[in-house]
Amino acid sequence: MVDKNEIKGAAKEMGGKVKETAGKATGNERMEAEGKVDQVEGKTQKNYGKVKDAVKDQTHSH
């Protein structure tokens, strides 16, 4: 089962990519930087969810 952090993290990462692209297209460096930060936060949250899910799977399989 997919952890909710994986889903939220993936959404934040995707939103960050959109924000970064919009920032590049409009020449808005702040928006571009915020998009990059959102992507890193999203990846971190997604990976946290994967680890949490893997630990849960391991504890339930034993």
Automatic annotation (TrEMBL):
<feature type="domain" description="CsbD-like">
    <location>
        <begin position="5"/>
        <end position="57"/>
    </location>
</feature>
<dbReference type="InterPro" id="IPR036629">
    <property type="entry name" value="YjbJ_sf"/>
</dbReference>
<dbReference type="InterPro" id="IPR008462">
    <property type="entry name" value="CsbD"/>
</dbReference>
<feature type="region of interest" description="Disordered">
    <location>
        <begin position="1"/>
        <end position="62"/>
    </location>
</feature>
<comment type="similarity">
    <text>Belongs to the UPF0337 (CsbD) family.</text>
</comment>
<protein>
    <submittedName>
        <fullName>CsbD family protein</fullName>
    </submittedName>
</protein>
<dbReference type="Pfam" id="PF05532">
    <property type="entry name" value="CsbD"/>
</dbReference>
